[in-house]
Amino acid sequence: MARHNRIVLLGPPGSGKGTQGAILAQNMGVHEISAGDLLRTEVKTGSNLGKEIAECINAGHLVSTDLIVRLMTQAFLAPENENGFISDGFPRSIEQAEIFEKVQQQTEFTGKKVDLVLLIDVPDSYILERILGRFQCPSCGTFYHDKFKPTKVAGVCDICGGKEFAKRADDTEETVVSRLRVYREATAPLIPYYEKQGLLVRVDGTGSIDAVSEKIKEIVGY
Ligand SMILES: [Zn+2]
Question: From 80, 113, 160, 188, which residue has the greatest number of CB atoms within 10 Å?
């Protein structure tokens, strides 16, 4: 079975992409590279690029596409990612993908091009149910879900016996619907884009974490 080593992870917010990315990175023995983390890290280093990013963010602007592509490709080619990587959150638009495509034509990317775009496919209704049902015990941090992981005794935390629970402030229907809309408009066009290039494979993201990660294992070869 052919193995894939340079993977772009795609999927709507709430698809379990973060969890699956972490499991896959561990199985493959590679790093997960997240655009958001890279931006924050680069700012902390105080490099020229970091200063450029900080200025941009402080001015309330979106970080430019060129800059994000530069930062991500630099990471893809870094010695610690020589054996592969998982890219989470990049590219997130056709604009980014097209610039990235040109960069990958350069000789330094010979043998190091992205070889799989893995789409974790989950219907919007499922995402809404998954996100809107989750709640947490603030005293011990345990997460629960109304339907998928209820407390053993109603209203009592399994771990610490706490009786008060909280929901994340951004786990509202309005926020989730708006994040899904952004995904459908900006990121989902990448699906036909990568399908045309023969790079895209879909995995059904409904079901348990273990079931989904088994399916991913088969596709990726790890
Ligand atoms: Zn608790």
Answer: 188
